[in-house]
Amino acid sequence: MCIRDMRYCNDWVFLVGFIGLTGFVSVIGAIGLNDKLDQYDDLWTGKFKQCIANQQLVDCDQVSSTLSKEWARTQSDVLRSLVYLFPIGLAIVALSLAYMRFKASQLVRAVIISELASLAFSGILNMMVLNIPFAVYYFAILLLKMLMYWCFRGALKFAAAMIETSVNTTIAMPGLYLVSAVSSLLQAGWCLLCYGAWFYSSEHGWNGSSQWLIVLAFFWGLHTISNLQHTISCRAVATWCYSGSGGDWATIRAISHVGLVTMGSVCLGSLLTAGLAVARYYYKKARKNAHKHPFLFCCCMCCLSACSGALETFNSYAFVSVARDGLPYCA
């Protein structure tokens, strides 16, 4: 039985704040999406009226039929794309799992090479457009990454073994795949709601001091959903390792434990990374003024990126303790 000592951290306060903020953004997001759909309807109606006014098509039924067919064709194209993309996505996931299970070491090398190549390519592109400050930034990150991987090159075999163990564990608990799918759907839905909230705030003349709440809620919601998935997986694997009871029951118990015991800690840790993400977002929006102090801008961006990466790494280990022992985040 996990005992929560509230002297260390009143994490339930952050849970209440998360529910309040996300609930507020969800309400105005739903209203904003409804207004956006009404705007599209008004657009179609406006085309219809304009067509009649210009007497391009005198027959109203013909105009209505033409617009209905165009709208139906657009919907069918979207549905057809989803039908094609869904099995392709499943096939990619299945092939990736099979490859990770048997060729994990090669996968680790491929990921490292692709990451270094993307940084080098970004630096070269910035050099080609004479964006020297950002070219220096990307090449500095590239050198730091190469130094890090060189220092930890002896841990690559351990990383490959951990990947194989993780794949074998998740195969024994298929409920984790359902948790991952639900997490992806929740993130997609949250992005739509935040888009609706941003549209609502723009239409009603909210200033920047109010819109930052939507930005914070956007990043906080995404990070919380992702960290919830991570914490549930850690709890399910810990239950399987310590008690020997695996399968879907371990996943169900992990979901109930995280929802009833550690949800506040997940919200607190996610708020910290979301705060840095908001800082990076607004700092990137100020890029138009980077030519005045390019070196200072690059240094600040590098510091924000380093802090964000370090905090995300810390959270990934902290949530393991939160899930396994039921400790508060601050403990």
Structure, described:
By secondary structure, the chain is an all-alpha fold. 85% of the residues lie in helices and 0% in strands. It has helices at 12-53, 60-102, 104-128, 132-151, 156-172, 175-203, 208-243, 247-285, 294-325. Mean pLDDT is 76; it is low at 1-8.
Distance between the termini: 17 Å
Question: What's the gyration radius in Å?
Answer: 25 Å
Which structural class matches the secondary elements?
A: mainly alpha
SS element count, helices: 9
> What is the 3D form?
globular
Low-confidence stretches: 1-8
Care to count the β-strands? Answer: 0
Largest sheet: none
Helix content: over 70%
Mean pLDDT value: 76
Strand portion? under 5%
The H-and-E topology, N to C, reads as HHHHHHHHH
Give the arrangement of secondary structure elements:
Elements: H1 12-53, H2 60-102, H3 104-128, H4 132-151, H5 156-172, H6 175-203, H7 208-243, H8 247-285, H9 294-325
Helix pairs in contact: 1-2, 1-6, 1-7, 1-8, 2-5, 3-4, 3-5, 4-9, 6-7, 7-8, 7-9, 8-9
